[in-house]
Design brief:
The radius of gyration is 24 Å and the shape is elongated. It folds into 2 domains: about 30-100, wza like domain (wza like fold); about 100-190, Outer membrane lipoprotein wza fold like, CATH 3.10.560.10. The strands form 3 sheets. The chain has a 5-stranded mixed beta sheet, with helices on one face. A 3-stranded antiparallel beta sheet has the order 2-1-5, covered by helices on one side. Strands 3-4 form a two-stranded antiparallel sheet. With about 210 residues, it is α+β, with helices and mostly antiparallel strands. Helices cover about 30% and strands about 20% of the residues.
Length: about 210
């Protein structure tokens, strides 16, 4: 418990603020919160939440717009196209401010493994802190981030958490995306302990029974 407390405190002190999620690539989904601004028309600017059907409604736009599946930039272009019927050369900015029901996963040798809300401002280290830190059995040199992107096969990235904490180099950390999995594998000592326990509890008694038959 003390080790995890120190780990969390140290991380909060040494890690620089992570970059915001790249809105050029982030795909808007149901439940996301958007801040939409129309330059020169403050009365049109407003926050909106993407409805369960994936659509939004906007003033002066007669048709509902499908926001789900678009980037913020693409949605801004769609809104500008529709608003151009009423406004001359509208300039629309869309910023994703909330991420609905999207989650990240922290699995393996975390204190409290499971799914956690995706906020758009989280790194692998912060996700581990959110999961209560790591167990003594965790192999911190080979923390794996699994990303199931658009490629046919998931991508895997290895983070040396020990080096990240000791060198205080935030660039060794990784900004997470929705549905990323942070996996803390077991260290060799923990695996050896498990093997010894399995051997003494299961294998050794069986050998003894067979020997006396």
């Amino acid at each position: 418990m003390k080790r995890n407390y120190i780990f969390a405190l140290l991380a909060l002190l040494i890690i620089k603020p992570c970059l915001a999620l790249d809105e050029l690539t982030y795909i808007i989904g149901k439940g996301d919160t958007l801040e939409i601004s129309v330059w020169g028309f403050s009365e049109l600017s407003r926050p909106l939440t993407v409805r369960p059907d994936g659509k939004i409604s906007f003033p002066l736009v007669k048709e509902e717009i499908k926001a789900e599946g678009l980037t913020a930039q693409q949605l801004g272009q769609q809104l500008a196209l529709q608003l151009s019927k009423e406004i001359k050369e509208p300039k629309v900015t869309v910023i994703v401010t909330g991420f609905g029901s999207k989650k990240i996963w922290v699995l393996g040798e975390a204190v409290t493994p499971g799914a956690y809300p995706f906020t758009g401002e989280v790194t692998a280290l912060k996700a581990i802190i959110q999961a209560g830190g790591y167990k003594n059995s965790a192999c911190l040199e080979n923390v794996v981030v699994i990303r199931n992107g658009r490629a046919p096969r998931p991508d895997a990235f290895v983070i040396n958490l020990t080096k990240l904490i000791s060198t205080k180099e935030a660039e060794l950390d990784m900004i997470l995306e929705p549905d990323d999995v942070v996996y803390l594998p077991r260290n060799i000592i923990a695996k050896l302990d498990s093997f010894i326990k399995f051997f003494t509890d299961k294998v050794s008694p069986a050998i003894y029974v067979n020997a006396i038959k």
